[in-house]
Design brief:
Elements (H helix, E strand, L loop, with lengths): L1 E7 L8 H4 L2 E8 L6 E10 L2 H7 L9 E2 L4 E8 L11 E4 L9 H4 L7 H9 L9 E3 L2 E5 L9 E5 L3 E4 L5 H22 L6 E5 L3 H12 L4 E6 L2 H9 L4 E4 L5 H9 L3 E6 L4 H9 L1 E9 L13 H6 L3 E4 L7 H13 L9 E5 L4 H10 L4 E5 L2
Parallel strand pairs: 4-8, 11-12, 11-14, 12-13, 14-15, 15-16, 17-18
Antiparallel strand pairs: 1-2, 2-7, 3-5, 3-9, 3-18, 5-6, 6-10, 7-8
Helix pairs in contact: 5-6, 5-11
């Protein structure tokens, strides 16, 4: 079938993107779903910093490519072998299609699925190949989702069925921002109630991390960012204090006010200075969690002896260390109860034609979570 999509042909074009237009709206040809696949009409897609990292070239990907990895939609067609879903079902996308059979999947770590990661790196579907063409040329998939499009063919393993009464705009956020941020607290850190917490970087993932820390009973939540508007929102969402990352003597002041540093520091900015700050304000015996996506070539320096002498822990958190089929329904229920107000993170709603300018706003930090909405 023919459908409209944003196609990325060249990485690293200069800003403003509203002028250089890295994303071109094209009419693509979408093959019907193959074995174990479905076709989804996209309802809403979130604009994530990971998408920006692809557009600006910080994370290399094969091109041409249809970007987008955080979305919700409605099933329109079932491929052979898909018997547990129906046409009309509402679904949330997952950006790792876990095979269920590899070593990581069988030990309960599907976010690290080896075949799923391999397909994501190649820009293909889980079962191989692509389902998108443009003028006879194969177009790659982003993380098996490619949701900056009116329709997408995805693997059965890339979607989770949700209740139809959950608004599809809000539902989109659960596939990345929510599962990554909340999972970093509840799964990766397994944070104890009463802990002192710092969150560095207050985008969609960081603010979900903050809300999860409050939900888990943190005694003190320190929010840090370079933008005061984000610090204001953090206060409304449960931060007990805020700091601009450019403040003089920031590290010294936090260590002094906390009596040696925080129990858990979460870096969600995807930048080495943010990770170094997070590590610097973590107390002896504490844990630093990195949940942001940095440039592939980025390196950090730290005094190696501190890890041993201070029994410090530095952990990565990919996809919130989640089991999505277990965790996303739980997080949706927390949202329904009003305990995880992810709807407060939603900012502008845009159309395909506004994508390039929207990524300028994202790069400037002017928005939390913009949504590409089709209905």
């Amino acid at each position: 079938m023919k459908t409209r999509a944003a196609v990325l042909r060249e990485l690293g074009l200069p800003r403003p993107y509203a002028d250089s237009k890295p994303l071109r709206i094209e009419t693509i040809e979408l093959a019907p779903p193959g074995d174990g696949e479905v076709m989804v009409r996209i309802a809403a897609a979130g604009l994530c910093h990971s998408d920006l990292s692809v557009i600006n070239g910080a994370v290399p990907v094969p091109v041409p490519l249809v970007p987008g990895h955080e979305a919700s939609g409605v099933i329109e067609e079932l491929g052979p072998g898909v018997t547990d879903l129906d046409i009309g079902d509402h679904v949330v996308m997952m950006f790792v299609a876990s095979c269920g059979k590899c070593g990581f999947c069988t030990e309960g770590r599907p976010a690290l699925c080896e075949p799923g990661r391999g397909a994501n790196i190649r820009g293909t579907m889980l079962r191989g190949g692509t389902r998108i063409t443009l003028d006879g040329e194969d177009v790659h998939h982003m993380l098996g989702v490619s949701c900056f499009a009116e329709h997408a063919v995805v693997s059965r393993e890339s979607i989770l069925k949700i209740d139809r009464d959950l608004p599809l705009a809000e539902a989109a956020l659960f596939g990345c921002a929510v599962v990554t941020g909340v999972g970093a607290v509840l799964n990766t850190a397994q944070m104890r109630a009463g802990s002192t917490v710092a969150v560095i970087g207050l985008g969609g993932v960081g603010l979900n991390t903050l809300m999860a820390a409050r939900l888990a009973g943190a005694g003190r939540i320190i929010a840090i960012d370079l933008l005061d508007n984000k610090l204001d929102l953090a206060c409304r969402l449960g931060a007990t204090e805020t700091h601009n990352a450019a403040e003089d003597r920031l590290i010294r002041n936090i260590i002094k006010s906390t009596g040696g540093g925080v129990d858990y520091a979460f870096e969600t900015a995807g930048a080495v200075p943010a990770l170094e700050l997070a590590f610097a304000i973590t107390r002896t015996g504490g844990t630093t969690i990195s949940a942001g996506l940095p440039d592939r070539d980025a390196r950090m320096q730290l005094p190696a002896a501190v890890l041993m002498l201070g029994e410090r822990t530095l952990k990565g958190s990919f996809m919130g260390s989640a089991v999505p089929t277990r965790d996303i329904p739980a997080y949706i229920e927390l949202y329904r109860q009003g305990r995880l107000p992810v709807d407060q993170l939603m900012s502008e709603r845009i159309g395909l034609e506004n994508l390039n300018a929207a990524f300028d706003r994202l790069a400037d930090g002017a928005s939390i979570r913009q949504l590409l909405v089709f209905e």
